[in-house]
Design a protein that fits this description.
By secondary structure, the chain is α+β, with helices and mostly antiparallel strands. About 55% of the residues lie in helices and about 15% in strands. The protein has 15 helices and nine strands. A nine-stranded antiparallel beta sheet has the order 2-3-1-4-5-6-9-8-7. A hairpin with a 5-residue loop joins β2 and β3. The chain is elongated.
Length: about 375
């Protein structure tokens, strides 16, 4: 899980939300204008490296709308890219769990009863509480809150501890993850839970916390599959670019395997790609926390690559000249790649695992490959509704 590394060495561009922009400008941080994939220009911040905790905090408070990286090669940053991908997925799941639980708490019998008896002081999603007061109450109720959290976590702890399929380190990661789901709930939720501890309907509330925590713990398993799928796509794009550039440089006078495995030839080809600015772009677009229907839990992962393998197979696809985009599913894309262009079996293997894993935990998953005839840009999109 992402806590293993204290700092991730990976240059990232962060596009901010309105809230994020306001926060950084208010705090005297100058925003930079930068180019993203497809020549789109945005304002935001650029980090050469970052701590997982700081990036996660920004995502949890809805300051970031998109994270993008661009590289000529991905192999040397494999672990960092996978860590970043998992960090984004976990952050989205923490946020979704928080929204789900808050809605359950407001709809609970405990709150319904309170609102009936206290019409002048009803508790709903518009209730605002002074932050200093909120923190002082939570400090005062620290012991109660610890007990409540242990009560919620007890069945999950027991389940993880007894799971013989997990190694000791994996058990620790799972235990830590279950705690993080609870620790990332908004303070107002804990204020309400502590206030009504022991009241009629409180036990049902604890059950709701438990059952939904189990569901979100299951959903978190897809983070690993997503990171593997992304690396597979990035490596395919990288290899395709290396081979294409090598053909142009060496006019076919070099063995293609040497391009991939000979460090000197590889470096020469990568330098050429970087000089031309022919990079592979990878972005994570994070659904807003706002009320927009359908966007809140949407995570869109997009890979942009210039003149990728699609170039050689697009004739097979939709031949209608009036179509702006030629669209195929990622499965079709992999199946119709020419022999030797990429490890299609591995791609399909990851794809089927990811699709199956999403289906099991009720996460809608879509994949699409677009080729823009007006340019030589291939766009691969994975969309998940968490």
């Amino acid at each position: 899980m992402q806590e293993r590394k204290s700092c991730i060495d990976l240059p990232v561009k962060l596009v901010l939300t309105e809230e994020g922009t306001t926060f950084f400008i208010r705090n005297g941080k100058n925003l930079k204008k930068f180019k993203l994939a497809g020549n789109v220009e945005e304002y935001g911040i650029i980090l050469d490296n970052f701590t997982p905790a700081s990036l996660q905090r920004m995502m949890l408070v809805d300051y970031i709308s998109k994270v993008e990286i661009s590289k000529s090669e991905f192999m040397s940053s494999r672990q960092e890219i996978m860590d970043l991908s998992k960090l984004v997925v976990y952050s989205m799941l923490y946020r979704q769990y928080d929204s789900f639980i808050f809605a359950r708490v407001l709809a609970s019998d405990v709150i319904k009863k309170w609102n009936r008896l206290n019409p002048a002081n009803i508790i709903d999603d518009k209730t605002r509480i002074n932050d200093a007061f909120l923190q002082s109450v939570l400090k005062e109720k620290e012991k109660d809150l610890y007990e409540i959290k242990q009560q919620i976590l007890a069945p999950m702890y027991a389940y993880i501890s007894k799971n013989s399929a997990l190694l000791p380190e994996e058990k620790n990661i799972q235990l830590l993850l279950s705690e993080k789901f609870l620790n990332n709930l908004r303070p107002f939720t804990w204020f309400i839970v502590a206030k009504f501890k022991g009241a009629e309907g409180y036990e049902q509330l604890v059950k709701d916390f438990r059952t939904s925590l189990a569901e979100y713990m299951e959903k978190s398993k897809i983070a690993e599959y997503i990171s593997l799928m992304i690396m597979e796509l990035a490596m395919n794009a990288e290899n395709s670019n290396l081979k294409r550039e090598a053909k142009a440089i060496f006019k076919g006078a070099v063995d293609m395997n040497a391009v991939l495995f000979d460090p000197n030839i590889r470096r020469q080809v990568l330098d050429s790609l970087e000089r031309k600015g022919e990079l592979v772009y990878l972005s994570w677009k994070i659904g807003s926390r706002g009320v927009s229907v359908g966007t809140q839990g949407r995570l869109q992962i997009t890979l942009y690559n210039k003149e990728s393998e699609y170039q050689s197979v697009k004739e097979i696809f939709d031949e209608h000249k009036n179509a702006d985009l030629k669209k195929k599913s990622l499965q079709d894309f992999y199946k119709q790649l020419p022999e030797g262009e990429a490890n299609t079996e591995l791609g399909l293997y990851y794809l089927s695992y990811l699709s199956e894993a999403c289906e099991k935990v009720n996460v809608k998953f879509e994949s699409l490959v677009n080729q823009m005839p007006s340019s030589d840009l291939t766009i691969i999109t994975l969309a998940l509704y968490l």
